[in-house]
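Before relying on records like the one below, remember that each one covers exactly one chain. Contacts with other chains, cofactors or solvent are not represented anywhere in the record.
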Amino acid sequence: MLVSFHESYLLLVALCALFCVLTMFYSLYEHLTRGIRRKRQNRRVAVLKGLLADYAGSQGAKRERYGKKLSHILKKPNGVLALTTALNEIGWEDSAGMDPATRRILCELLTEKYIHVYRKEDEAVQGMLISLLTRCDASSSRLKKSLLQNLEAKNLLVRIETMRYISVQRNRKLMLQVLESINRQPQYFSNKLLTDTLLEFRGNREALLEELWENLASYSRNIQIAVIEMLTVLREEMFAERICAVAKDQDKDKEIRIAALKYFQTVRRPEYMKTFVQYLMDPVWEYGAVVANVLRSYDCTGFFEQLLKGCASRNWYVRNNCARTIVACCSQEQIERAVCVEDRYSKDSIQYVWETMGREEGWHNA
């Protein structure tokens, strides 16, 4: 039997109304139970604070009994969240706010629980517990082995928290082992995660950089890019000559060479620009686009002709970046000359950038 349009319309309205009513009841339920959940969590935090104090102050069978109670509470993510709050309230984040002996005992507890129990539990629990372990020293060989195995985990949270934990350690050997492990296994680690991990390293950074550079060719593309980006952020000038060699090496991967070129936007080396300016007309357009941006950090008056040729490139990014560099750092006379060129590509790109940057400056001044 066919359903009329009017009946279909009423049915749709009824379904929408039912959805709105159910959403309203769910919101009301969440509002009424939020306070109950908060009180329950606060009670859990208070219990954990007492258990942590009792555990740290006891020995033998008593400590073992308190450890079992802690294990029961920490089986779910809410328990680990409560543990995080309890530890923070007793000074876990502040190294001077907790007695060193108490911190050592609690670190041993967390390390033991993680190795024997929680490494097999819910991945969210694993990630949160690893986050707590960042305040502990990775002196346990079994913990180091577990952490290296975590780099193969499918769960991104576990991998990220593991990298964060390793980065705050002062163990250069462990950091190199981590990079070697990442180099061998298929799990993806973004350049940003690798760079952040290297930047947060708290040990002898100069020695780490030298060892990283010595082994650079043996690492994957992502690790090589992360090392160069780390040097860029830190403005490490002592590596300028070596990074210049990487940028000029045509056998290197394109993304690695681009990272090396970007280094000179932060660490200024005018003597290398005469070589890099040739890339403005390179068949690989990415080199030209990056070099045009890099030149904006230098005195560009001596590279005006090359930049003007770049404005005639058939690639929009190269044209646009060359035009922006001319308008931003060339002399007024050179800019006026660029506006009056006969080449249509060059003229259009210069005028477009001139008008765009003029509007941006006007908005900024306004």
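DSSP finds 19 helices and no strands in the chain.
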